[in-house]
Structures are given as structure tokens and as C-alpha cells.
Design goal:
- The chain is 0% helix and 59% strand.
- By secondary structure, the protein is mostly beta strands.
- The strands form two sheets. Strands 2, 4, 5, 6, 9, 10 and 11 form a seven-stranded mixed sheet that branches. Strands 1-3-8-7 form a four-stranded antiparallel sheet, with no helix packed on it.
- A hairpin with a 4-residue loop joins β5 and β6.
- It is elongated, with a radius of gyration of 14 Å.
């Protein structure tokens, strides 16, 4: 069972910064990609940023230039540096990992961490 542990959420004023961390453990053989999604009340979960095993990154348009996703040296960790935060960034942020086993891709989610940006 793959287990994801997130940390780093909290309350911050607009313009401030937060750094989210996610560490994956368990039977991880090949990580295809790691990423962060977010969900606000009444909204669908949306991709914030993702990074592949090869280091390619993908960002939502609303966070480009403000957020940076990176992998740790251990490769089973992922970080999201969030700068110039806005009230509309308020959401529960979820870590996501896609793992390749044989020829199938399995997806795992963290429990979520609350990010609240006050105006």
C-alpha cells in the first residue's frame, strides 16, 4: 500500500508564501509522475502542478510564475513552493503520485492539506 504524507499547509496573508511537501512510501517501484491538485468547496479538483520522472513540469495557468514544483533528492518526495499567494488559491491541496507497475499505472492520493490565503 502506497502511503503519502503531506505537510506545509496553513494560513497566510495575500502576497505571502508557503511550501508544501509530500513524501511517498510503500511498494513504489517506478514513479511516473508526482503532482499537486487542489479543490475548493463546490468546485472540482484541479491540477495545480505536476512533475514527471524525467523532470518535465506542467502548471495550471493560474499559478504559472508564482508556484514551483520540484522533486527531492530521494525522488519519492515532491515539493510545491507557492509565492505571491492570492485569496483564490485557498483550497485543500492534495498530493498525487502515479506509479507504474508492469504495464499499468496506479494513482494514489494524499489526505489533503488546507491552504488558506486571507485578503
Amino acid at each position: 500500500q502506497v502511503h503519502l504524507v503531506e505537510s506545509g499547509g496553513g494560513l497566510v496573508q495575500a502576497g505571502g508564501s508557503l511550501r508544501l511537501s509530500c513524501a511517498a512510501s510503500g511498494p513504489i517501484f517506478t514513479i511516473d509522475s508526482m503532482g499537486w491538485y487542489r479543490q475548493s468547496p463546490g468546485e472540482q479538483r484541479e491540477l495545480v502542478a505536476a512533475i514527471t520522472s524525467g523532470g518535465n513540469t506542467n502548471y495550471a495557468g493560474s499559478v504559472k510564475g508564482r508556484f514551483t514544483i520540484s522533486r527531492g533528492n530521494a525522488k519519492n518526495t515532491v515539493y510545491l513552493q507557492m509565492n505571491s499567494l492570492k485569496p483564490e488559491d485557498t483550497a485543500v491541496y492534495y498530493c498525487n503520485v502515479k506509479v507504474v507497475i508492469m504495464t499499468s499505472v496506479y494513482e494514489y492520493w494524499g489526505q489533503g492539506t488546507q491552504v488558506t490565503v486571507s485578503s
